[in-house]
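Fold this complex.
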Amino acid sequence: MSRLLQALVLARTFLRISALNELQYRVNFFMELVQSLLALGTGLAVLALVFSHTRELAGWSQAELLAVMGVHILVGGVVRTAIQPNMLRLIEDVRDGKLDYLLTKPRDGQLLVSVRQLNVWQSVDCLVGAIVLGIAVVRLQRQLGVGQALGFAAALPLGVLVLYCFWLCLATGAFWVVRLEFIVELFDGIYQAGRWPVGVYPLGLRLVFTFLVPLGIAVTVPAEAIVGLAGGRTLLLAAGFAAVLVAITRWVWRRGLRRYSGASA
Amino acid sequence: MRDPDIFVQDLRKTFVVPTREAGLRAALRSLVRREHRDVKAVDGISFAIEPGEVVGFLGPNGAGKTTTLKMLSGLLYPTSGEVSVLGHVPWRRRQEFLQAITLVMGNRNQLNWDIPAVDSFEMNRAIYGLPRRQFRETVDELVEVLEIGDVVRKPVRTLSLGERMKVELAGALLHRPRALFLDEPTIGLDVAMQRRIRSFIAAYNRRNGATILLTSHYMADVQALCRRVIVIHHGGILFDGDLRALSDRFTSHKTISVALADPSVALDGYGEVTSREGDRVTLRVRKEDTSTVAAKLLNEQPVSDVTIEDQPIEDIIEQVFAVRQAGP
Amino acid sequence: MLARPRARLRAVRERELERLRRLAGFYVAVARTAVQEQFQYRVANYAYMLGMITEPIVYLVVWSTVARSQGGSVGGYTPAQLAAYYIVWTLVRNVNIVFTPFGWEWRIREGTLSGMLLRPVHPIHYDLAYFAGWKLPVVVMWLPLAVVLSFAFHPAIAVTPAKAAAFFLAIWGAYLIRSMFMWVLGMITFWTTRVSAIYMTYFTLELLLSGRIVPLGLMPPWARTLASFLPYKWTFGFPIETLAADLGGAELLTGLGAQALWTAAGVALVAVVWRFGVRRYAAVGN
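Structure:
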C-alpha cells in the first residue's frame, strides 16, 4: 500500500511541475480554445444534420447522442492532456536512447514514463466536453439520480484507464519498431469512431471498437451510465475488462524492457 | 581491506544483428528469411575497481566501452560472465543499487528540455526520495562549485552546450551516488569547458570518495582525471594499469608535419621520419625536443606549413597492441 | 526576307519546348524520389491511411443507419449508394493530399525555402511533383483496403469508360485546386506566424461544405448554394460523384469546366501572392 502511495506522491510532484511550466504559455490556451470550439461546431452540425433526417439513431435520441459527444470530447481531452504527451515522449526517448536514464532510476519504469508530462492547455477540451455533457443531461428531460451519477463517476476513470493501457501497449511497440511517431495520427483518426455509441456499428466493427480499440468502455459506457442506460452489470464487466487490460499492459511493458535490455528471451 | 566496488569477471556481450545487402532482390529475400550476424561487442573482460578509484576506459569508437558501461549500470544483460557493482548484480536493478549509482552520457540529456533545471532537480528529488534539507544543501553545493547559479532557473533548451553539461552533472549527483558512470562526458565541448568539467569531477572524487568510471576517446580526459586506465579495443582489454606507465611509454613523442618546397631533402637529422606524402614529411620527435626541433626546421628549411600534434590514440593503441603481441 | 522572322519564331518555340522538356524531366525526377521515399515509409503511410479511413466508415455507418430507419434511403441515397460514395471518398481523400500550410513555418525557419528559391524552378513545381509522385505508392496501398471495404459494405457502383475518364480528370483537377489554395494559405506565413486559427477555420469550412462529411445532396439547400460558390466541392464532392453517382454527360462537362476555372483562379492567386510574399521574405531575410 505504501508503494502505491509513494507512486501517487511522485505522480503529483511530476504533474505539478510540468503543469506549472506549461501554464506560462498562455497563447496556447487561445489556440486550443479555437480548435476545440471549431471541432465542437462541426460535431454539432453533423448531429443536427443527421437529426434533420431522422428522429433517432439505433435507439439513441438526439440528447443521448449529445451526451456521447460530450463524453467523447471530455475523454479525448484527458487523453491529449495526460496520456498522449507521455506516450509520445516514451517513443522519442526509445528512439534517442534516452530511456537509459529512466532505467537507472530507483523507481518503476512504467510509472516514470507515464507521469512525466502534462499538456495543460489541452484540458480545454475537458471543460468543453463537460459543458456539452451537462447540456445534454439537462435536455434529456429525465431525472438524473444518484445511481447514474455514481455510475458515471465510476465509469469515467475506468474508461481513461483503459485508454491509458491501450496507448502504453501501442507505445511499447517502439521497443520493436523504432520509428513509431505515426501512432499519434493513427489513434486520432480511429478515436473519431468514439463519437458515436458502439451499438451503431455493424457487428464486426462493434467487436473491434470494444475489444481491440477499447472505445466502447472509454466513451460509450460512461455515456450510457449517465443517461441511465447502463446497469451495474455493464459496469462490472467494464471493470473486469479493465483489470485484465492492466495486467496485460504490465506484461507487455516488461517484455518490452527485456527486449530493450537485450535479455536473451 | 574493503571489497572492490566494481568486480567484473570474464564479461561478454554478443549482439545479434540482422544483415541485409542493398538492392531489391536482397530486400525481398530478407522478407522471407532473416539472416543474422554475431557481433562480439565485449569479448571476455575482467577487472576490479576499488572504492574511490577514478578509472578511465580508453578506446576508439566501437571498442566496447559504452557496452561495458551499460552492463555495469544494469541497462544491458550480459551474455555471460560475472558482474558485481557495490555488492549488487546490476541487471537485477534493485532499488538500493539504483539509489547508489548515476549515469551521465555526454551526448544525451536527461534533464527535461523545456523546463528550468531547478524543476528537473525537484523531480529527481521526488524520484530518489531525498529529504528536503539534505537536498537543499546538495543543490547549493553543486550550484556553487559548478557556477551555474544564473542558469539553473532558465529552461534547459536555452543554455549553451557547456552550461547544459554542467546542469546535467548537477542533476545526476543530487542523490550523492557512490558510483559514477560517465560516458564521454566532455564530448562536443570546447577546450576551456572540457577542462572545467574535468576539474569538477576530480574535485568531486576527492571530496566525496565516489568511485568513478569514465569512458572517453579523448586522451586528455583520461590524463586529467585518472590514475588508472583500462584500454579497450575490439571488446577486449589491451592494457590495465597506471596511466603514467602508459603515458611514458606511448605518448612520449609528438609528430611534426611539415610542407616543404623540396620534399626530397633529408631530414633525418631532426628526428625519425615516419612518412613522406607529396610535399609533406612527418617526423616523430621526443616530446621535450618538440619546440627546439620545430624551431630548427623553420629556421633552416624552406617550410611552407607546419603542424604539431600528439600521437593519435589509434597509434598509441596500435603500439600497445603490438607490445602485447610481442609478449613478455 | 520572310525567312528571318520565321526563323526567330522557330527559335523562340524551340526554347519554349526545351524549357518544357526540362520541366517535365524535373517532374519525373522528383516524382520518382517521392515514390522511393514513401515506399520506404510504408508502415507509417499505412497507419496514416487506416486512421484516415475511420472517418468515412463512421459516416457511412451512421448515414446507412439513418437510411435504413427511414425505409431504405435518405435524401435519395440507399446504403449501397452511400457505401459507393464513401469508398470512392477514401481514394479521393488520398489523392487530394497536398503540402500542408502548417509546413510553411517549418520550411521558412529551417531555411529550406531559401534553398528552393535558389533553384531555377518555381518551388511550387517541387510540391506538385512530389505529392503527385507520392500518389503512386499510396494508390497501390489503397487497393487492398478498397477490396476489403467493398466486401464489407457492398457498394453500388457502375463504372463506364466515360465516368472513369471524367474521374481521372476530376481527381487531378481536385489535386491542382487544393494545391493552389493550400499554397496561398501557406504563404500567409510570410506575413505572420499566428496562422493556426485561420487554417483551422478554413479546414472546418472545407470539412462542412465540400461533401466530406456527407454527400452534398444530403445537406440543406442553403448549404448547397453556399457550397457552389466555394472551391471546396470541386476538391471533394464532385470528383467522388463522377464515379460514385450517375452524373449525366452535361453535368460531368460543366463540373470539369468549373474545376478548370477554379484551378485558373488558384494559379492566379498563387502568382500574385507569391510575388508579394517573396519580396517580403527577401526583405525580412532569414
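Chain A is about 75% helix and 0% strand.
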